[in-house]
């Protein structure tokens, strides 16, 4: 066998979405030798699909400050978010948004030249009193504008991109430090070793573990799989956000910005039912809450259409001019995916999987932390994670809209700064272990030597259907327990996936098979963590744990105000406390969430 090609960098970043490119920019500008790997061309990363906006308390259009943003985010997280990280993010928000503006981001403008801001779910003024205009937007193409801006800045700073390279595994040495990654060059099918003083994972979410998802096909949780296989636990994976307004039957997202601009959800009687559930915030209550109300309406027979199985989003009163100015992509999506002219008729929507709140555990510098043998939380030397694949944790049990793009900027930048600092203090390359590529080589060899076996797509489809069935908007203990069994069986099937086409050049079947090995890690982490959490909190709502006087909304802080850690090798769980202590301000004490 030919020797495996090796290359050496200061830093290897896996992922060229918003978080990866915000971090790489910081590193390239500091003169570090940085390689950014991506399965697709950088500007095709899922960040490009973000529509609604970036949260920052600029106060351009209504009174606002970061304390309100901090409060909303803690409350939105159902008190599972770490308050130090949330304070850090909300305080940094205006700075990173203005910085982006100076990079050339084409935000929409107010008449006075300031950045346009729209209202968004769960974002309020004066601690829950009324909706606030906090989402900084470029029409309904905010992610598109942001990703292109960051890409251009990286080109200028001479960041090196490795496009259509798929990272396979982390390389750890005998002391557990991360010293590089292995990667497959898709064009040639060759395996490479990329050595680095620091590796940063920015691989985005794993939304493709569900059948109905707003996520891109590439969102297969590769970073989660890499971490899990390398012995790093995954945190809070039971918390998955359903976005209230996916186009029924298509899954494509209609941004919350629609409701920010005034769109209304209606049941089959034409009733604006959110007024009943959330008298103050109405259609702009947080996503977990709105999704459950929609599901409730459908369950109680007030869904729309012949099968009464969807809700209608009504934008007809906004007027064609506003829609074409503020929501041009939504107009196109209505036309292309639902055959609806949204200026004239309402569009059918259902809650659709959108975002993972959990991920690879990190501190506010993006450094990955994992429990040592004695149970203490220790930094994994050489490894950072940012963006949707990471869990810092600012979103807790439920993310507020616009806080993800913000998370990418704040923690991408913070991780970049921290890595630069560590390099300045004198980091050096460590020796690669002799078997650096052994795990990846074994994975590839198994696929190449399998003479029969199942199609990766069949296994992936069954996995997605199981997740949809057993980890949906409303969960039951019995169904989650069944889900745990099903996913364990699927893990066995993943081991038997075979490749009919063994060719090397651009063999997408091989890529898909390797992705399924990541999907199963994310899926099992989700199912096992969910079945073990015997309460309802944020997006994890279990019928068995309903509202009682002792535990309003089914949330049980005495037992469950803690982060879950799932360990792949043993398929077992451990827990760690939530940090209720912010950096400088007073803690927001837990309360019952009402809107
Ligand atoms: C339709 C949609 C609309 C949204 N709208 C908003 C919004 O308005 N506001 C908001 O705050 N949030 C929004 N979100 C959420 C937000 O966009 C995402 O959470 C965020 O963009 C994720 O960014 P990221 O940098 O973590 O990853 P991504 O942008 O998903 O990028 C991941 C990168 O990792 C690379 N990668 C993955 N695996 C590998 C591998 N094995 N090897 C090499 N490269 C790899 C990919 O190629 C890609 O470059 C939206 C999400 C969706 C799906």
Features:
eight-stranded mixed sheet; 22 strands; 2 domains; 21% strand; four-stranded antiparallel sheet; binds flavin-adenine dinucleotide; Flavocytochrome C3, Chain A, domain 1; alpha/beta
Task: Explain what the structure shows.
With 595 residues, this protein is an alpha/beta fold. The chain has two domains: 1-239 and 357-594, FAD/NAD(P)-binding domain; 243-353, Flavocytochrome C3, Chain A, domain 1 (Alpha-Beta Complex). Helices cover 34% and strands 21% of the residues. It is built from 16 helices and 22 strands. Strands 1, 2, 6, 7, 8, 9, 16 and 17 form an eight-stranded mixed sheet that branches. It has a four-stranded antiparallel sheet with strand order 11-14-13-12. A three-stranded antiparallel sheet has the order 3-5-4. A hairpin with a 4-residue loop joins strand 8 (178-185) and strand 9 (190-201). The longest helix has 25 residues, at 508-532. The termini are far apart. Flavin-adenine dinucleotide binds next to helix 1, strand 2, helix 4, strand 7 and helix 11.
């Amino acid at each position: 066998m030919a020797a495996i090609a090796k290359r050496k960098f200061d830093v290897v970043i896996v992922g060229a979405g918003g978080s990866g490119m915000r971090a790489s920019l910081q590193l390239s500008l500091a003169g570090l030798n940085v390689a950014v790997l991506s399965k697709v061309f950088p500007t095709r990363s899922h960040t490009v699909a973000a529509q609604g906006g970036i949260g920052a308390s600029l106060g351009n259009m209504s009174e606002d400050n970061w304390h309100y943003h901090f409060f909303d985010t803690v409350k939105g997280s159902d008190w599972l978010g770490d308050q130090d990280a949330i304070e850090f993010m909300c305080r940094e928000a205006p700075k990173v948004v203005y910085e982006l503006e100076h990079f050339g981001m084409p935000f929409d403008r107010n008449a006075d030249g300031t950045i346009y801001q729209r209202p968004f779910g769960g974002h309020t003024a004066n601690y829950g009193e009324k909706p606030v205009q906090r989402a900084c937007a470029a029409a309904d193409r905010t992610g598109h504008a942001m990703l292109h801006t960051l890409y251009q800045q990286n080109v200028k700073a001479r960041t090196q991109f490795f496009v259509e390279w798929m990272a396979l595994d982390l390389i750890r040495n005998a002391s557990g430090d991360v010293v590089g990654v292995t990667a497959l060059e898709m064009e040639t099918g060759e395996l490479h070793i990329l050595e680095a003083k620091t590796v940063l994972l920015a691989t985005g979410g794993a939304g493709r573990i569900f059948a109905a998802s707003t996520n891109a096909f590439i969102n297969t949780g590769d970073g989660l799989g890499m971490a899990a296989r390398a012995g790093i636990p995954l945190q809070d994976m039971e918390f998955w956000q359903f976005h209230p307004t996916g186009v029924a039957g298509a899954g494509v997202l209609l941004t919350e910005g629609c409701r920010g601009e005034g769109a209304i959800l209606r049941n089959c009687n034409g009733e604006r039912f959110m007024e009943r559930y959330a008298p103050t915030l109405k259609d702009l209550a947080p996503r977990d809450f709105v999704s459950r109300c929609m599901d409730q309406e459908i369950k109680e027979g007030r869904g729309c259409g012949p099968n009464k199985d969807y809700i209608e989003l009504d934008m007809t009163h906004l007027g064609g001019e506003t829609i074409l100015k503020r929501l041009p992509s939504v107009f196109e999506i209505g036309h292309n995916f639902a055959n609806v002219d949204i200026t004239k008729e309402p569009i059918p929507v259902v809650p659709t999987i959108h975002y993972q709140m959990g991920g690879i555990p990190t501190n506010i510098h993006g450094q990955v932390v994992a429990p040592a043998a004695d149970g203490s939380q220790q930094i994994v030397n050489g490894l950072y994670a940012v963006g949707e694949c990471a869990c810092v944790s600012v979103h807790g049990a439920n993310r507020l809209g616009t806080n993800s793009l913000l998370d990418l900027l704040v923690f991408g930048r913070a991780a970049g700064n921290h890595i630069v600092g560590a390099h300045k203090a004198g980091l050096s390359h460590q020796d690669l272990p002799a078997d650096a590529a052994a795990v990846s080589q074994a994975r590839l060899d198994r696929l190449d030597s399998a003479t029969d076996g199942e199609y990766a797509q069949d296994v992936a489809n069954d996995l997605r259907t199981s997740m949809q069935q057993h980890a949906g908007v409303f969960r039951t203990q019995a169904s989650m327990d069944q889900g745990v069994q099903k996913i364990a069986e699927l893990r066995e099937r993943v081991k038997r996936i075979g490749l009919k086409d063994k060719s090397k050049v651009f063999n997408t079947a091989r890529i898909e098979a390797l992705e399924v090995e990541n999907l199963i890690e994310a899926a099992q982490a989700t199912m096992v963590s969910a079945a073990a959490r015997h309460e309802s909190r944020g997006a994890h709502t279990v019928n068995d744990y309903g509202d009682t006087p002792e535990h309003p909304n089914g949330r049980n802080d005495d037992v469950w105000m803690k982060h879950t850690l799932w360990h792949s090798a043993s398929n077992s769980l451990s827990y760690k406390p939530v940090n209720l202590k912010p950096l400088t301000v007073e803690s927001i004490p837990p309360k019952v969430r009402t809107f």
